[in-house]
Amino acid sequence: MSILVYIEHDEGAVKKTSLEAVSYGKALGEKEGKSVTAVALGKIDDAELTKVGSAGADKVLHVADEKLSAGVIQAHANAVAKAYEKEGANTLVLAKSSLGDAVAARLAVKLKAGLVSNVVDLPDTNSGYKVKRSIYTGKAFAITEVNTDNKILAVKKNAVSLRTDGPDAKVEKLEVELSESDFSAKITSTDKATDEISLPEADIIVSGGRGLKGAENWGIIEDLAKAMGAAMGCSKPVSDSGWRPHHEHVGQTGVKVAPSLYVAVGISGAIQHLAGVNASKYIVVINKDPEAPFFKSADYGIVGDAFEVLPKLTEAIKAI
Ligand code: FAD
C-alpha cells in the first residue's frame, strides 16, 4: 500500500501548497507504514521534480504528455486514477485549491473514495478514521469520519510544516492511455485581469485600513508591498469610500485570504475583517492604538503611527 500525492505546478514550478501536501503525505506514510509517491502531469522538468523528494516523496511518477495542461481536468483525474491504481494506493493527498477541488471531486466518484477537504491534521485512527478539518474560514474545526477503503485528503494551505530535508526523489516516466473524451472539455485561456499579485493566492499581503486617512496616502502601503513582493488588501470602509478597488476588500464580505504573512496597517481588527484573515500563518499589526482589538490576533505588533513606521520598515526591508 502506498500514499499518492497529486502535484500541481505553475508552468513547470511545483506549487508550495503541493510540497506541503507531500510533507503531509510523508507524515501520514510514517504513521501508517506506507511509502509516498507523487504524481505530476504535463510539461515539467525532471530537475524540478527531484525536489519533491526534499518535501518527503520517495518516488515521483511523471506523465509527461504535454496535452495535460491544468485546463483538462477530466484528463487529470483519469491520469491520477491510473497512477493510483498502478501504485496500489489507498489514500490520495492533494492541496486544497480550485484545481485540486475539481480533480478531487471527480476522483472521489471514480474511486468511490471518502473526500475530506481543508484538512489540518493527521487522521486519528484510534477508533475509526477521523480527520480534522478547518471550517468557517478557520474559526472552527470539524471532525469528519471516513469509512471508505479509498480516501482523499485535501490539505489546507499553511496547515502543515514543510519538510526540506529529504533526499532527491527518483523520477519515473508513466505512460497512461487517455481517451478523446477526457479532453472534450478544456479551459483554453485564463486572461489575467491585472499584473498585480492575486490576493487569494498571495503569500504575503500588506493591507490598509481607515487609519491611512485617505487614498492619497496609499503610497506608503504600495511601497511596503513592493519591497516585500506582497499583494495589497484593505478593509471594507476603505473600498466603500473608493480609496481602493472593491476586489482588494478583505473580510467576511470580501476576499478570504490565507497568506504566510498578513501585515495589517491602521485596521482596528473588527470581527468581520478577522473572518477573512484568520487563516493567515503569521499576522503583523501596525496600529497607533495599543488597545486596538487586532493586537489580540497578532503574532507580532508595532504600536505606532503608520506614517512614521511604514517608511522606516520599507527602507529596512529594502536594505536586506
Ligand atoms: P476603523 O475601525 O476606523 O479603524 C481604524 C484603525 O486605524 C483604528 O484601530 C485606529 O487606531 C488606527 N489608526 C488610526 N490612525 C492611525 C495611524 N496614523 N497609524 C496607525 N494606526 C492608525 N470590514 C472589513 O474589513 N471586511 C469585511 O468583510 C466586513 N464585512 C462587514 C459585514 C457586515 C455585515 C458589517 C456590519 C460590517 C463589516 N465590516 C467589514 C466592517 C467592520 O465592522 C469594521 O467597521 C471595519 O473593518 C473597520 O475598518 P478599519 O479597521 O479600516 O477602520
Strand portion, in percent? 25-35%
> Class by helix and strand content?
alpha/beta
Q: Kindly report how far apart the N and C termini lie.
A: 47 Å
Using the alpha-carbon principal axes, give the shape: elongated
Number of DSSP-assigned strands = 16
Q: If strands are numbered along the chain, what order do they take across the biggest sheet? A: 7-10-6-1-4-5-11
H-E order: EEEHEHEHEHEEEEEEHEHEHEEH
Q: Report low-confidence residues grouped into runs of 5 or more.
A: none
Question: Which assembly state applies to the chains in this document?
Answer: single chain
Number of helical regions: 8
- Using only C-alpha atoms, the radius of gyration works out to 21 Å
Helix content: 25-40%
Overall average pLDDT: 93
Biggest β-sheet description: 7 strands, parallel
What small molecules does the structure contain?
flavin-adenine dinucleotide
In short:
Pfam families: ETF (PF01012), ETF_alpha (PF00766). The protein is of the alpha/beta class and 320 residues long. The chain has eight helices and 16 strands.
Describe this structure in words.
The protein is an alpha/beta fold and about 325 residues long. It is built from 8 helices and 16 strands. A 7-stranded parallel β-sheet has the order 7-10-6-1-4-5-11, sandwiched between helices. It has a 5-stranded parallel β-sheet with strand order 13-12-14-15-16. Strand 2 (about 10) and strand 3 form a beta hairpin. Helix 3 (about 75-85) crosses helix 4 and helix 5 (about 220-230) runs parallel beside helix 8. It is elongated, with a radius of gyration of 21 Å. The structure holds flavin-adenine dinucleotide. Flavin-adenine dinucleotide binds near residues 266, 267 and 287.
